[in-house]
Amino acid sequence: MKPLNADAFDLKELLSKRERELMLLMVDGKPRDQIQIMLEISYETFKTHRRSILRKLELPNDMELLRFVLQNDITEKDY
Fold this sequence. Notes:
Oligomer: single chain
Shape: globular
Low-confidence stretches: none
Structural class: mainly alpha
């Protein structure tokens, strides 16, 4: 698998504001149920956003998402 680079993506255009919020909370280590409460979303909505993030970034799983965010030093201030 080739290493992904955030420069290849315009994350503000690629991901919705809500998807970016969820992604950063996931990478910050927040548990799913806490994210649901913080964003006031259902479990189904959480799953939909998570799947959408992985699909749009062409990542196979949450661990690769974490690696992508850390390698590219993506933080809340970027949004």
